[in-house]
Design a protein that fits this description.
Length: about 425
């Protein structure tokens, strides 16, 4: 099966080099990875010791950040190489507080894995959540490099626990220890004879609990909000925006303002979204002191400010749960002690299930339920405050994941 996998990687590589001439994203995928090994060669020194941390994208980086910071402190005589698979994560966090060099992960071929790992020669390797690249894992195992998975989540229906996935399950033996988010994941690993695992919880709680302590002020947003109740719709997709726009256009009271933060910054799509709203709407890049007082809706056309915008929200809507786009980070708004509304596609998010059961979150499945729930919240401050306290208390009660991981690594050092 490893032979078939490597053949598939080769076919993908060849196809990408053809398709890059017809697809901008594929072109960028290829071009941005051209200089990975040159970057490593120019930064790696044989007399230095390195730790390799790999994340898929921005979400996994944010989830692991509290642990990364402690690893950096624990191994203060080591340099850290951070790799991303996705462009969205790399571009936003190319400059970050923990790594000495940030690079893209090359395609998972046998040769790439060998070159990459041999150049870094890491003392330990750390992967986050779902990152299982067979050739990288196989070579790490061959070189006997201690390898850890943090914030892992496993489900019985994962394909590598199926009969045809035996070869991939075998590659999981590269991990010296699995730090998983919940007991169910540990039970599944134990069932499949992986006993080198422990429940750490979710390090995102440590990450988000620090957010309100930072400077979250954004120029002119206080003037924009003024006396109004503010709804922040974060990481929205087309299907999210459709129900939000209908609500904005139909809601008659003037004591509400709205901030829409699209998941992808596409100026053509943003312009179209703006044209569908019948209340005075401006782009974030156009915001100034004068028009902040006049408009009712802001559409954000830049990246990196969503977390701070939640500071101004009375209610948050988090996108991706309507349809199949994938629900985005719900803990970031929750830490600001506000109610959170989401779509009904949240089954892969245990913390969301719990917060719905605790009645800190509300799940909607169509335009009517969205209108009903949002209107009720706008008209009931007591309910908003109660839900906000439920969400914040839940976050505080789930701290401690970072300490568990670092305590283990201290014993192994």
């Amino acid at each position: 099966m490893n032979i078939l996998y490597n053949l598939l990687i080769l076919i993908i590589k060849l196809n990408l080099h053809v398709l890059k001439y017809f697809n901008k994203k594929i072109y960028e995928f290829i071009e941005e990875r051209k200089n990975i090994f040159d970057d490593l060669k120019s930064h790696i020194s044989e007399d230095k010791k390195y730790i390799w941390i790999h994340v898929a994208s921005l979400g996994e980086y944010e989830q692991g950040l509290p642990i990364f910071k402690e690893i950096k402190s624990l191994y203060n005589d080591h340099k850290i190489i951070l790799s991303f698979f996705s462009a969205s994560g790399y571009k936003v966090r190319k400059n970050n507080p923990i790594s000495d060099l940030t690079v893209y992960l090359p395609l998972d071929s046998t040769n790439n894995a060998k070159r990459f790992i041999d150049l870094i020669n890491p003392q330990i390797a750390v992967f986050v959540k779902y990152e299982f690249w067979p050739n990288f894992l196989k070579y790490l195992s061959k070189k006997k490099i201690p390898t850890y998975l943090i914030a892992g989540v496993f489900r019985e229906n994962h394909w590598f626990f199926k009969p045809y996935g035996f070869w991939m399950k075998n590659n999981l033996k590269a991990f010296d220890h699995f730090f998983v988010q919940n007991q169910n994941s540990k039970n599944i690993l134990n069932k499949h004879n992986f006993n080198n695992c422990s429940v750490m919880g979710d390090s995102r709680f440590e990450r988000v609990v620090e957010i309100p302590k930072q400077d979250n002020q954004i120029k002119y947003i206080s003037e924009f909000k003024s006396y109004k109740k503010c709804i922040v719709a974060g990481s929205t997709w087309k299907e999210d925006e459709e129900i939000i726009i209908r609500f904005i256009n139909n809601y008659k009271k003037e004591d509400v303002c709205y901030i829409i933060v699209p998941h992808q910054i596409d100026l053509k799509k943003i312009s179209k979204t703006k044209s569908l709203i019948n209340k005075k709407t401006i782009l974030m890049s156009e915001l100034n002191k004068i028009n902040a007082l006049e408009c009712s809706v802001i559409i954000v056309d830049s990246i990196g400010i969503l977390t701070s915008l939640y500071n101004y929200a009375d209610i948050a809507y988090v996108g991706g749960g309507i349809g199949n786009s994938g629900l985005h980070n719900t803990l970031e708004p929750a830490v600001f002690k506000i109610p959170v509304i989401i779509g009904d596609n949240f089954k892969k998010f245990p913390e969301v299930k719990e917060l719905i059961n605790l009645k800190g979150f509300i799940s909607i499945n169509d335009e009517l339920s969205f209108e009903t729930e949002l209107t009720n919240l706008l008209n009931n401050k007591k309910s908003r405050d109660k839900m906000g306290q439920i969400n914040y208390r839940f976050i505080k009660e789930n701290l401690g994941a970072t300490k568990k991981v670092i305590s283990y690594l201290k014993q192994k050092k």
